[in-house]
Structure formats: structure tokens, C-alpha cells
Specification:
Number of strands of chain B: 12
Largest sheet of chain A: 5 strands, mixed
Strand order of the largest sheet of chain B: 4-6-7-8-9-10
Largest sheet of chain B: 6 strands, parallel
Distance between the termini of chain B: 59 Å
Distance between the termini of chain A: 62 Å
Shape of chain A: elongated
Largest interface: A-B, 56 and 57 residues
Strand content of chain A: 15-25%
Number of strands of chain A: 8
Number of helices of chain B: 21
Oligomer: heterodimer
Shape of chain B: globular
Helix content of chain B: 40-55%
Number of domains of chain A: 2
Radius of gyration of chain A: 22 Å
Strand order of the largest sheet of chain A: 4-5-6-7-8
Strand content of chain B: 5-15%
Helix content of chain A: 40-55%
Number of helices of chain A: 10
């Protein structure tokens, strides 16, 4: 090992920030063993380390596009999905995972996605699996309420760990193509808006908007009671098994599930 | 009988969900369908669970009976005519509205509609068809629908339902014909298997005419294909081969021979299948289909009445005919059959009826009928669990029922899962070298499943693997380490390939599994098993 200092690329704590940092690190030619990427979350304090140099990265759309184009054109769509899943995750090492995954990817090509014996590839693989798993949980455990009729509007609230709205919107925009609906991601202050037979977008909300949507999503309606009745009666009393129920549907996901909320 | 004449919708849901809850299958898998303009919903290939009830079972579909009135008196059934329970009946509109409104709120993937038998099987099937017709055409529901085919209903009605449904199921009810006679006197094997065969033939035709949209093949089928095993009379093509062989085509005649020989490995197994009542023709060779004797039954042949799809012109065929395939279920522990008998039936159903899934339901004595055994829930549920494990081994891993159990050893080991149990009996095939073993050899290693096996096969093409890497691929090391080597090395030097040694260690590891069945496993019990069951 040489005594070259570790260089930390500090960036905004969002998709664009992380990918911009990957871009800067990539063109620096500094040597990937000495590079780290650190997304800086607001309101958190980071200690300065000795023998480390810090570089502030400015986010830009050009940098993001440049990274993503390179991944798609020089590696593969599969690698692109590894990168995007890590980018929407909230793990603090996601920038490192993307950067190190890509250093292998640019030399190995698409095969990199299978090479999970390489520690950083394994990490990227793991992040992707977790993000997909969480997205799938929110295809399952998400409940809409009809908060308005003529035109009908459906609203749901979720609190995921990662920014999975774009992933699940692929699913719900097809399933409920003919509905107006909104999914509020409470923890991240974002929401997805879907227009009847039209497009959808994910937007960062103001505090007032978030509060308004959260209240809307708790509105009472007639089908809640019918669903709770069904939920209660479909269980076989002789087979009661709360442990199994908890394994399959962890308490953490029940927070916004109609059938578990007392009203 | 208590009739709820003016039951509210909420009361009806309570009564008819209560009446439907003993039905096991609630899967919404098997068909990938995108949305359609002007319709509500789509379908996700692997299915989606939306909640888990207090018994830990998944809730995927709105599982209800159309009515819980029933003219039959099956001894095990909560809805039998002699039971004094509240009765209710939905209207078709109620079923449709509930399905659509629950679906829009993402409570469910779709509808699972079954029914008690009102008046006649035909009348009941017509009620189911009415509800589904409305749901698909008026309410324009494009999500998942599972419905029952009522044994004894006319083939026209069964076909119509098949065009609306994604999956259909006919309950086998009990594994043996004798059991059926004793406990479900109004049903016969023949009445159960006839619609099952009709649906199978319809699916084969739909696949041929509509391609992928007509429905995909089962996991069992894909596994057999991967292993190069012949499947008797499953696909439309195989049926054709059979027909042309009858006409004297020598080339195809060989194929038939192959298929016939795949039907039963030994006379003993053939006997077993006969006993279960699902053998279709008793002897191979030049004889015409042997006419029915004691155990067997006659099934409608390819050109018989009631098979083949007849409603192409009258119905919207865009979804295909039963595209997610058919399933069945049987009650375990009510009529004294062995696990071996159950697995033989299961295998025969996969091979001869092209089923997607076979479900097992641990018997719950809801009626306290004296024709039925008094059972303890815990051991029976563990038995059910073992059957499901073995079922997965058949469908995804390529095991045959005869490898797992035999007439001499007709029950699964209660302490070890069927795969570990098999491996311990075949230690001569281990250890397996992870870097070079075939996919199918990897699949037979305890602790390696379909996902990890395929990850291993892909990863080892890109470089050398070690134990750390295997862990990252999802291999359950505490089970696998006894059965694998990686680059010629054992994970720990002290591991030995010895039945007693491995058994003891596996059982130690599986304490948690046992505890999840509510059992306390003590060291004493383990040594007891060691001595009496596994010791040499």
C-alpha cells in the first residue's frame, strides 16, 4: 500500500448527487482503492478524518446522464438496474457500491451482474435485492382509500425505507390505469400522482402538501368495515398462529394497513 | 337451518367467508396479463399476497362462497346440510361490487369463488357463471379470478366458467376412493375427474390455438422437460401422437411406449395408483382402453362428448381458457391414508392431469362427527408441512415420489425435511463439488435451493467461488456444509460424511423449526431419535 490519502467525494443525499459523485470519481483517475463516496444527509454531523481529502461534488443532470448512458451502452440493461436500485436506496455506502461495481463492470461487461463472489458486486446485488423486495412488499401491503367520488380519487400512504415510488408506480399505473390516484411516501416527503388514463410523476412535497395528503389518506369510507369483516372471518381459529403472521407480515408494515388500524 | 333472510352485506361477508375459509388454495399466480383499455386491473405472474390472516395464511383473493346452502352431507364439511349454521347467499351484483371495490383499494388480487351445492350441480355452476359473466363483461374486471368447477355440472357450464376464470379447481377432497365413499357419499371419483380432464384438454387446445396467451406450462412440466423425462399424454402434441399411434404410425408408436413406461415404474406403484382411483387405463399395449373394473374409472376420450372447446364464437376468448391452469386440494388425516399414498396421487395428478398445484389441508374436525378421527392439530399440521415440502421437491427439484417414500416406509420423517432425509439415505452421492456439479446435482444438496443453485451456476462462470461467496448467494450453510466441497476443500476439516454425525447436527440446527410448530425439543428427545430411528 502506498501512503496516498483516501479521497472522499461528498455529495447531495439524493439520486442525482450520488450519480454525480460517481461521475467525478470515475473521471478523476485517482485509483479506485482510494476513493469513497459520501452522501451528506441534511442535519447530520460528519467527522473529519485525518489523512483524508474531501471533494465537494456539484450535482448536475449532465453528469447523471453521462454515467447512466455509459452503463447502458458499455455494460448492459441489467447493470443499469443494479445502479438504479442502489441509487434509490438509502444505504450510506450506496455510492461506493455503485462506483466499485462499475469499475468491475466496465472491464467484465454484463457478466459482472453474476459475479457475486466479488465483495462489492455482492453488495450491489444485495442492495438491489433489498430494494426490489421492499418494492414488492409495497405492491402487497398498500391500501388505497377512496377520498372523493365523481371523479373518484384514491389515496394511499406508505413509509418505505428506500425511494421505491418509481418502481411500484410501474405496477400501479398499469393496474389502475383508469383511476386518479396518489401514493404518499410519508417518510421521504414525496408523492406519486397518477392521472386517469394518463401519465404519472413523482414530486417532492412541501410540508403543507404532505400534511394535507396524510389527512386525506385517513378519511373514513364504507369499504373499510367490509374489508375488516372479511379479514377477521377468513382466518381459521384452530390454526391461529401469530408468530407465522408476524413473519409473513412484519409489524413495521402494518402501520398504514387498513385491517390493522383501529378506527 | 337458520336462514339470514335480510342479512346485511357485512353479515353475508362474515357468513360466506367463514364458510370458505377451510378451502386452502388462495394463490393468484400463473398468469401475467397487462391492463386493457376500459377495464380494471391486470395480473402479476408470480401472484401477490395482500395480507396475512391471524392463522398466518396469505390473503390474496376475495375467497368466498356464493352460497353456503348445500344439499350434500360430506362428513368433514362445515357447510353440510345437516349442520345448524347460519346460511346466506350473495347476489351476482354483490359479488362483483365487492370484488371491484376491494380490488381498487388494493386489498386483493381478485376473486376466488366457490359455492355450496344448491338444488343441482348444474344450477350451482350456472350461478357461478352468472356472477363471473357479470364481473368480466359488465364490471369489466381484468384481474385474477379463481373458481371451482362443480363435480357433476354439465361440460357447457364448466367451459363457460373456464373462459372467465384464470384458474379453476376441482377438489379431490380425499386421497383415496375409499375415503371419498366413506366421507363424501354424494361425490364420486368419476364426477370429480371428469371436469378435471375437460379443463386439462381445454387448456391444451387453448395453448395450441392462442400460444402463450392460452396459458403456460406448470413448474412440474418444466422440471420434467429439463430432466428429459417423458410426460404421459400432457400436451396437445402428445395427445396427437397417441392418436396417430393408434392409427398405426410406427414412429409415434415408440413415443407412446416411452410415455406408457413413464406412467409407472413398477407394478407396485401401478397398484398404488389404482387404489387411489385415478388410473385411467389399466394395461398398456395393444388392448383398447381397458373398460373400467373395480378401482379405475372411465374418462372421456379425446373425441368424446363434452371435451374440446365449443364456445369460441360466443365468448371473449382474449384471456385464454383457464390460462393460470388448474389446481386441486385434498384433506390430510381424515381417512387414514399414508404419506406415500398421498404423494403417489399427487404425482399422478401432475403427470396425467397436468395440474399446476396440489394443495393439502390438515383435517380440522369442525363437525365432531363420529365417522371422523379425533385429531391433534400440531402433529397434523407438521405432516401437512412435510407434504408441501415434498410437493416442492416433485415440482421444482425433479424428485420422484418413489425416491422419497416407499411401501415399507410410507411416512415422512417428522424430524427431518424430506430433502435432508433423502440425502442422508444417499450419502454415496456426496459430497458434491460446487465448482463443477450440474445444476440438478446442486439442487439435491440440502441447503441449496433453486435460486442459489442458479446463482452458483452463473457465478462460477465468472470466477472461482469460496464458502464466503456461497453464503452471499443464499446457500443455507448450516445444512449444506456436510454435503459440499468447494475447490476440493471442506469448509471445516472435522466434518465427516457419516449418517449419525450429520443427523445429530442437523437436528440440533433445526430446533427453531421444531419450535415454530409449538414443540419443545429437548436433548433427550434428540438422542432418542438418534438411537431408534437413525442408528445403525
Amino acid at each position: 500500500m502506498s501512503d496516498k490519502p483516501v479521497r472522499v467525494y461528498q455529495c447531495e443525499d439524493n439520486i442525482s448527487g450520488v450519480l454525480s459523485a460517481v461521475y467525478e470519481a470515475g473521471i478523476s483517475g485517482y485509483g479506485h482503492k482510494y476513493i469513497k463516496i459520501q452522501p451528506l444527509a441534511a442535519n447530520e454531523i460528519y467527522e473529519l478524518e485525518l489523512f483524508t481529502e474531501f471533494v465537494r461534488v456539484e450535482s448536475s443532470d449532465e453528469k447523471v446522464e453521462s454515467v447512466l448512458d455509459a452503463v447502458r451502452n458499455k455494460i448492459s440493461n441489467r447493470a443499469y438496474s443494479f445502479v438504479m436500485c442502489a441509487a434509490v436506496s438509502t444505504y450510506s455506502d450506496r455510492g461506493d457500491a455503485i462506483y466499485q461495481f462499475l469499475t468491475y463492470g466496465f472491464s467484465m461487461g454484463d457478466k459482472v451482474c453474476d459475479a457475486i463472489q466479488i465483495p462489492w458486486v455482492k453488495r450491489a446485488f444485495e442492495i438491489r435485492r433489498r430494494v426490489f423486495n421492499e418494492a414488492h412488499f409495497f405492491r402487497e401491503f398498500i391500501r388505497f382509500r377512496e377520498v372523493q367520488k365523481d371523479p373518484a380519487l384514491l389515496v394511499a400512504t406508505i413509509e418505505p425505507e428506500h425511494h421505491i415510488l418509481p418502481i411500484i408506480m410501474d405496477h400501479f399505473s398499469d393496474r389502475f390505469a383508469g383511476e386518479w390516484f396518489i401514493i404518499l411516501d410519508k417518510g421521504h416527503g414525496e408523492a406519486a400522482f397518477h392521472q386517469k388514463n394518463g401519465d404519472w410523476e413523482v414530486r417532492i412535497l412541501t410540508t403543507e402538501e404532505e400534511k394535507m395528503l396524510a389527512e386525506l389518506g385517513e378519511q373514513r369510507e364504507e369499504y373499510v368495515e367490509l374489508w375488516k369483516t372479511f379479514f377477521k372471518h377468513i382466518a381459521i381459529p384452530d390454526r391461529k398462529n401469530e408468530k407465522l403472521q408476524r413473519n409473513m407480515l412484519p409489524l413495521h408494515y402494518r402501520k398504514n394497513l387498513t385491517e390493522f388500524i383501529e378506527e | 337451518m337458520i336462514f339470514q333472510e335480510n342479512a346485511t352485506l357485512q353479515q353475508k361477508i362474515a357468513i360466506l367467508a367463514d364458510a370458505a375459509k377451510y378451502d386452502v388454495a388462495c394463490t393468484s399466480s400463473g398468469v401475467e396479463r397487462k391492463s386493457r383499455e376500459g377495464y380494471l386491473g391486470n395480473s402479476f405472474a408470480s401472484g401477490i399476497c395482500h395480507s396475512f390472516a391471524a392463522d398466518g395464511r396469505c390473503i390474496s383473493l376475495l375467497k368466498i362462497l356464493f352460497t353456503n346452502e348445500c344439499i350434500y352431507n360430506c362428513k368433514y364439511c362445515v357447510n353440510r346440510v345437516s349442520n345448524d349454521v347460519p346460511r346466506a347467499t350473495f347476489t351476482p351484483d354483490e359479488v362483483c361490487t365487492l370484488t371491484v371495490e376491494f380490488y381498487r383499494r388494493n386489498y386483493i388480487e381478485g376473486l376466488f369463488l366457490s359455492s355450496g351445492i344448491v338444488d343441482t350441480p348444474d344450477y350451482t355452476m350456472e350461478l357461478i357463471c352468472q356472477a363471473l359473466r357479470k364481473l368480466r363483461t359488465e364490471y369489466r374486471f381484468h384481474g385474477y379470478v379463481h373458481c371451482k368447477a362443480i363435480p357433476g355440472a354439465s361440460s357447457d357450464l364448466v367451459e363457460e366458467a373456464g373462459w372467465y376464470a384464470d384458474r379453476m379447481s376441482v377438489n379431490l377432497e380425499l386421497p383415496t376412493e375409499q375415503g371419498l365413499r366413506n366421507l363424501a357419499p354424494n361425490k364420486t371419483r368419476k364426477k370429480i375427474l371428469t371436469p378435471m380432464r375437460q379443463i386439462q384438454n381445454g387448456m391444451a387446445e387453448s395453448r395450441e390455438l392462442l400460444g402463450m396467451k392460452g396459458g403456460n406450462q406448470s413448474a412440474y412440466w418444466h422440471t420434467q422437460k429439463r430432466l428429459g423425462r417423458a410426460l404421459p399424454g400432457q400436451t396437445g402434441k402428445a395427445v396427437q401422437e397417441l392418436e396417430s399411434a393408434k392409427a398405426g404410425n410406427a414412429e409415434a408408436g415408440k413415443a407412446v411406449e416411452k410415455m406408457e413406461s413413464a406412467k409407472a415404474d413398477s407394478p407396485r406403484e401401478e397398484r398404488m395408483i389404482e387404489k387411489t382411483g385415478i388410473a385411467e387405463n389399466k394395461k398398456n399395449g395393444s388392448e383398447e382402453r381397458a373398460k373400467n373394473t373395480a378401482g379405475g374409472i372411465i374418462l372421456p376420450s379425446g373425441n368424446g362428448v363434452g371435451t374440446g372447446l365449443a364456445q369460441w364464437n360466443r365468448i371473449d376468448t382474449s384471456r385464454g381458457f383457464v390460462p393460470a391452469g388448474q389446481s386441486t386440494q385434498m384433506i390430510v388425516g381424515a381417512s387414514g391414508e399414508s404419506d406415500y399414498e398421498i404423494m403417489a396421487v399427487t404425482e399422478a395428478l401432475y403427470q396425467r392431469f397436468d395440474l399446476k398445484r396440489v394443495f393439502y389441508s390438515a383435517f380440522v374436525n369442525v363437525n365432531q362427527d363420529n365417522a371422523l378421527p379425533m385429531v391433534e392439530g400440531q402433529p397434523l399440521r407438521r405432516r401437512e408441512h412435510r407434504l408441501y415440502q415434498a410437493d416442492f421437491l416433485l415440482r421444482y427439484y425433479g424428485y420422484q415420489a418413489s425416491e422419497l417414500l416407499s411401501e415399507e416406509r410410507p411416512f415422512f420423517n417428522t424430524c427431518l425435511d424430506p430433502k435432508c432425509d433423502w440425502a442422508l439415505g444417499h450419502l454415496e452421492q456426496f459430497p458434491v463439488e460446487v465448482m463443477t456439479a450440474s445444476y440438478d446435482a446442486l439442487l439435491r444438496v440440502p441447503g441449496i435451493g433453486a435460486k442459489s443453485a442458479s446463482r452458483i451456476v452463473k457465478a462460477r462462470r465468472t470466477g472461482t467461488l469460496d464458502y464466503q461467496a456461497l453464503k452471499g448467494m443464499g446457500v443455507v450453510m448450516k445444512r449444506a456444509i456436510y454435503f459440499i466441497i468447494c475447490n476440493g476443500k471442506k469448509m471445516y476439516d472435522f466434518l465427516k460424511i457419516d449418517e449419525d454425525y450429520i443427523t445429530r447436527n442437523l437436528l440440533e440446527n433445526d430446533k427453531n423449526v421444531m419450535e415454530s410448530f409449538g414443540e419443545k425439543v429437548t436433548y433427550k428427545q434428540l438422542t432418542l431419535f438418534d438411537d431408534f430411528q437413525f442408528g445403525n
